[in-house]
Amino acid sequence: MLLWLVIGYIMVSIGIGLYAATRVHNARDYIVAGRNLPFVLVLAMVFATWFGAETVLGISATFIDEGFRGLISDPLGASICLVLFGLIFARPLYRMNLLTLGDFFRVRYNRQAEMALSTCIIVSYLGWVGAQFAALGLVFNVLSDGAISVNEGVFIGAAVVLVYTLFGGMWSVAMTTFVQMIVIVLGLLYVTWLAGDMAGGFDTVIAKAASEGKLNFLPTLDTLDILAWTAALLTMALGSIPQQDVFQRVNSSRNERVAVWGTTIGGISYFFFAAVPLFLAYSATLIDAEMVERFMDIDSQLILPNLIVGYMPFAAQVIFFGALISVIMSTASGTLLAPSATFSENILKPFVSNMTDRGLLLSTRLAVVAFTLIVATYAVSTDATIHHMVESAYRVTLAGAFVPLAAGLFWKRANNLGAGLAIVLGIGTWLMLELFVPEGDVEPQLFGLVASALGMLVGGLIGPKSHHRPHAGHHHAAAATHHAR
């Protein structure tokens, strides 16, 4: 019965997504919802896209194991990323009136930068979307009491997300996410209230977490510990700024004000609400310590679903799994669309002369299908945890894309030579260390970030002055370039 009710809810979500598809008339509608979304939809998309499987299953399991120290990248780093993007990056990027971040790198630098950094952005989504599909596999496995294997669940979940993303694009993401955000917030608050009662009260759970050192989040005064802490924070806080899904939400906004505050308030909301699944998971250690111990050895991501199935009344089970499915589908749909749009606009389009708007729309939809198959295959073949998949996703963009984006917007001397050196040195340094010194004292992507910044600095100082002005005039040139292509 529980499985069928959840399937019914999924069908409703698909229905909403397909209804939203009636608003798609061209590629711009599909990729950025015609830049017409109001504040409430942008806020919902920012919050629900980041409040994914990672937050409910991944970081809650990590919190039981490592406490707040294991969560520096997410939710702390993720929230900082959204607030920084909203307050600093959203306004100048929104004014440029682009479809993708790849377009920014072409307009600000050159075609080579566009191709290289678009490829980095696309690759980074493998782990991020893979984490959502892996979580769907876990959910279907638990709901069917093992009748559906985790791998089968991954492909079933991928097919569901594919259906409404394929037809409705950003309009489907926006409308389904708005409904899903309401289910997420109300559902998780209700289930957490029940769990707190079962565990002996909120004070009891928090006191136990504090007594076991789970609430400590600052590094020790040891230099290596500080560097490791900083690397974890920066990987998510800065590495996820040059990402198409965040940019797409900003760019779908009705106006600049919505772009700035929808993203900023969405980031703050995410940080505070991420505490809910942490409390819910930790209450399991008081409700059934033996069950927690058992799943810590098998797969700690299964603790929360099994707590709900084993101890909650039927209505709470329906609400929790409805909320969990909402969490995963809202994240998966948005993050599936982002790399697909980047591929069709920035990798494929330059090689297809005179690609029409209809051709761009079709190629983006085909890219959605292809990327779904690639990611689902990756999700069933990797043995990485959900948290690790997400944490690893932003290493390449931190090392290679953050400096060209930030410098391109805010440093007048940023030029093609600087961008080229930043990309080559940043990604080259990161890759070399990742391959040969993966277990070093300092995370490889931090060295990549420093090398990238040095490359941009050297190139900007010795290379020819750029004719671009970071804050003014881009949107007219960019729009003209886009329409001319």
What is the topological layout?
Blueprint: H1 2-20, H2 27-32, H3 39-50, H4 53-66, H5 72-95, H6 101-108, H7 111-143, H8 150-198, H9 202-211, H10 223-237, H11 244-251, H12 256-273, H13 275-287, H14 289-298, H15 303-311, H16 314-348, H17 357-381, H18 386-393, H19 395-400, H20 402-410, H21 416-436, H22 444-462, H23 474-484
Helix pairs in contact: 1-8, 1-16, 3-8, 3-12, 3-16, 4-13, 4-18, 5-10, 5-11, 5-12, 6-7, 6-23, 7-8, 7-16, 7-17, 7-18, 7-21, 8-13, 8-16, 8-17, 11-12, 13-14, 16-17, 20-22, 21-22
Write up this protein.
This protein has one domain (2-394): Sodium/glucose cotransporter. It is globular and about 65 Å long. Helix 16 crosses helix 17. The longest helix has 49 residues, at 150-198. It has 23 helices and no strands. 56% of the residues are buried. The protein has 485 residues and is mainly α.
Tally of domains: 1
CATH top level label: Mainly Alpha
- Tally the helices: 23
Q: Portion of residues in helices? A: over 70%
- The CATH homologous superfamily is named Sodium/glucose cotransporter
Mean pLDDT: 86
User: SS-based structural class?
Assistant: mainly alpha
* CATH architecture type: Up-down Bundle
Q: Please name the CATH topology.
A: Sodium/glucose cotransporter
Topology order in helix (H) and strand (E) letters: HHHHHHHHHHHHHHHHHHHHHHH
Radius of gyration: 22 Å
- Strand segment count: 0
